[in-house]
Amino acid sequence: MNTPEKSNSAPRRGIKQFLRKRIVVQTAVGVAGLGLCGAVLVGLAVALTWPNLPSLHAMTDYRPSVPLRIYTADHVLIGEFGQEHRNVVPFDDIPLVMKQAMLAAEDDDFYSHGGIDWMGMARAMLTNLIHMSKSQGASTITMQAARNFYLSSDKTYLRKFYELLLTFKIESELTKDQILELYMNQIYLGHRAYGFEAASRTYLGKPLAEITPAEAALLAGIPKAPSRSNPITNLDRAVVRQHYVLGRMQTLGYLTPEQAQAAREQPLQIRGGQGGQNDDFTVHGEYPAELVRQIMYGLFQDGTYTRGIDVYTTIDSKSQQAAYQAVRTGVLDYTRRAAYPGPEDQIELPADIEQDPQAFEEILDGVQDETPDSSDLLTGVVLSASPTEIKVARSAKEIITVSDKKALAIVARALNPQASETQRIQRGSVVRLHKNGDQWEILNMPTLQAALVSLAPKDGAIRALIGGFDFYSGTFNRATQAWRQPGSTIKPFIYAASLERGMTPATQISDQPFTLSVEQTGSRPWTPKNDGNDYQPMQTMRQGLYRSKNMVSIRILQAITPQYAQDYLTRFGFQKDRWPAVLPMALGAGGATPLQVADAYAVFANGGYHVPPYLIDKVTDRSGNVLMQAQPVVAGDEAARTIDPRTAWVMDDMLRGVATSGTAARAKRTLKRNDVAGKTGTTNDAVDVWFAGYTPALATTVWMGFDQPQSLGTNAFGSGLALSTWLDYMQPVLKGVPEQAQRPRPDGLLVDNGEYYFSEFPPGRAIASLDLPTGDQLTDFLNNMRPSDGAPTQVRPLNAPGGGSLPAPATPAAPLSQAPMQGSMAAPVVAAPATPQTSSGTGSTANRTPATSGGSPSGQHDAALAIPIPLAPPPANPQPVTGY
After folding, report:
1. Which residues are annotated as catalytic?
2. Is the model's pTM score more than 0.90?
């Protein structure tokens, strides 16, 4: 007998089945709708994009260009731009074994698919998804050709979409043989070799027509990782890849087992490339080379990369390499002392991956793609880590052990099991290895940046230029484009201005602190301080410079007026609009590039002449015909005189003292020379540190700081970080260079009690002192002077009848013969330069003569070259000026 529950079960099952069917139908309809929408969107995207795809003219009318080549003054190649080291070989002249090796290595279904290997893409996506990495790709030869000719290597979905569409277009307009020919002539194969003919000559020293199966497999293995797997950079890895290609050639029937084995056993003769330059650039001149490229492109546009232009710069190869090493050493020293932030990345490393060299190499290649080497900072993957030892894989065969106690101390916190996941070094961590002497160490990629500029004071020829730690991490050139506050390196120019206003190195100046209120400044309170809060009652100007006394510099600036100093700075190439006429100017509150600072110090080094820096000596065509030739301004040309020769001589004398017994005394102790001068600079909170120094033959400036301004730490000073880097550069560069005597003392300089005076401001008539002897702080600071005859100080309001005010900066100076000589600052006179000069204040022109039409891409000869060095655009977020 049926129960009521059983009698109701059948209808319920029917209802459930109905609901299930309905859900299935609705889901199917939804999926179909989504698929239809997706198809419509894809179709719309293709319809909109296809007409805008580039024409295939670059492939159908293939004309390799002759590159722009850039040399140092001593003819060392530092840069090539264009289709480099390419020897085009017609399809029928490419050996069959080379074609087979290439297909076996990269795309064995090339002649059967329509440009895209859909199954291969699916396999790669699934593998990458499982391993959560980008260790496999599925680009066909046609896809790689599209990327090489038209697209960047950016790993974005949009770029991949364009690549797919271009692939279809190429396959529709070119034959398979044409595509393979173009690919094999276009592909980059390391060491500036493009195409297999150039690679064969580079690595094997023979034409492509003479290669063996073993050599063909070796070359075919390079495109996977041309920078890491070429025979010069890493022969072991290249051989591993070669054996893989030979195995594929055997599997595909291109070689018999006997032929493949014979190829594996054939000794490889890696020759380094007869018939072409093949080694990496021996000198790291990336920054000046890129600067030259920009200048040349401004003149010749696209013809820059096709005309075969040779540019000979003023760079000295020895100096440039020394600058590169000095900057690297300085930045890495700072990085070594700073807290280690943790590995660059973390990947999933299978437990037994070391037992499968081929799979391991695939993973390491993917890591290298994402985190490439930076010169001597090498990328590796950690296999094991403990507080006493770290094992790091550079390749399947190259395992490096870090066990030195000092090296381990750098990353000690990251080896603590309690460290956070982002900071801890463990298996699968991607780290940077560095060889420090005989020991390996692990460092992070530095965030500290630096710039170094070195030029000849005689004519402004730039001998070395480094714009950052690693050019390939970003081409921003901090030497010419970074506007930073120069700190105390600006003080010598304020002091120079005061010499021409009646002060002397013996002038006594109050070193006491003060505070200006909001009412007094009109904006916010200002309380400047000396370094270490060290104050003296009085300091001579010379002592103030030696010890970099802020109070002394501010009082000097107030005495000569900020407006006068602002105008005076333009004589040295500084830009007026970047130096507000306010008292913090005395402490470097303005903007300058390292190139401008080096250019400015050269004026003291050469006797008072502003000779704008230049980088290009001459430009020739490939036949050696001179297209343009530099005609630089030379010190000694009175049209270039910018300050009184006496001012230059006295400042040179004081700056030599700074390098002997002042804040830069380490310079003379280290170099053991008497012709060294310079000045340290450190801004508030050590955001920027500088050293600007020179000998009569070389003016060099070093800057160090972060791109996004922040403190370098409480122990960072220009006399430490920046001076050390400056010395690391100057020591090798000055080796064997004779010491030069100081220039003869100019006429019109008097000597009294061992100190120097201008003849129009002799002892008893020059400014004797600036001090604060009375009650009202602001009035004393602004106006008070002590007469040189020792009479009591009188305090009067500014511009009061008979008072002690300075003349307005715009008031022309009286002729020297009529200049009133006062014992105080009552009426100092501006000592004008011997020859007035109008200055734009940019400090950036290469020479005086503007470029003419002869230097145009028309190829006409031009006897003069006058090309400005590009400076930075105004910053999007300008750094605020400290003080008021």
Report:
1. 106, 488
2. no
